[in-house]
């Protein structure tokens, strides 16, 4: 587990070192009403590289927190079991990407979907950073704080959803009718897939 946590820390450090925009400005930009703001730099190569860093960090972290929450924490870390969680997490994001393309084709234009994807990656990175801290506490804490950690994780996920909802309002607020798009996007690509992912994580833990 230590090597995995160290690798995750290295990813996030390298990603911020490579970033042109300072980390504190990233958070400010996220809440800006300017639809062009993103925590990624605007140079296409650098932007793509940073997205890869942040997506890798988020995927590994979500798989780790799922492993820690649903598997027996007192047993020795199993790389094979963790790889199952990681595989399910990657499939989860792949399905979300396919659904987003379908929704883009039916409802949105490419520019709107790009803003949504950037906003989602921004939110995902911030939430994953919080989950990373929770994972460290859960691994090295001397006390049994499972319930507190579970509650903190739930609160963090809810805050992430609210944070992304704010971004959706910034994108669609110019038209009242577009509020239907907000509900469609949240239900189709956020709430239902996350609930399904949690159920799959539980089944993996049961079959271990």
- CA-atom Rg in angstroms: 18 Å
Number of helices: 7
The major pleated sheet works out as: none
Helical proportion?
Answer: over 70%
SSE-based structural type: mainly alpha
Q: Please report the distance between the alpha carbons of the first and last residues.
A: 18 Å
Number of strands: 0
Order of helices and strands: HHHHHHH
Shape: globular
Percentage of β-strand residues? under 5%
Note poorly predicted spans: 36-46
- The mean pLDDT is 76
Oligomer: single chain
How does the SSE layout of this entry go?
Layout (H helix, E strand, L loop, with lengths): L1 H17 L4 H8 L13 H27 L8 H28 L3 H31 L5 H27 L6 H29 L1
Helix pairs in contact: 1-3, 3-4, 3-5, 4-7, 5-6, 6-7
What do these coordinates show?
The two termini are 18 Å apart. 80% of the residues lie in helices and 0% in strands. Residues 36-46 have low confidence and may be disordered. It has 208 residues and is mostly helical. It has seven helices and no strands. It has helices at residues 2-18, 23-30, 44-70, 79-106, 110-140, 146-172, 179-207.
């Amino acid at each position: 587990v230590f090597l995995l946590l160290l690798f995750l820390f290295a990813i996030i450090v390298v990603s911020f070192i490579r970033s042109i925009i300072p980390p504190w400005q990233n958070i400010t930009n996220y809440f800006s009403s300017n639809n062009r703001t993103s925590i990624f730099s605007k140079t296409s190569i650098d932007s793509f590289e940073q997205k890869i860093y942040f997506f890798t960090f988020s995927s590994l972290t979500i798989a780790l927190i799922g492993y820690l929450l649903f598997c027996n924490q007192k047993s020795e870390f199993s790389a094979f079991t963790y790889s199952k969680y990681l595989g399910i997490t990657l499939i989860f994001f792949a399905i979300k990407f396919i659904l987003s393309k379908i929704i883009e084709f039916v409802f949105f234009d490419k520019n709107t979907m790009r803003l949504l994807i950037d906003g989602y990656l921004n939110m995902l990175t911030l939430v994953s950073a919080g989950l990373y801290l929770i994972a460290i506490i859960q691994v090295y804490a001397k006390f049994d704080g499972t319930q507190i950690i579970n509650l903190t994780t739930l609160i963090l996920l809810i805050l992430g959803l609210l944070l992304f909802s704010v971004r959706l309002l910034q994108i669609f607020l110019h038209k009242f009718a577009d509020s239907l798009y907000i509900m469609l996007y949240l239900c189709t690509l956020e709430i239902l897939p996350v609930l399904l992912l949690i159920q799959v994580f539980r089944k993996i833990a049961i079959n271990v």
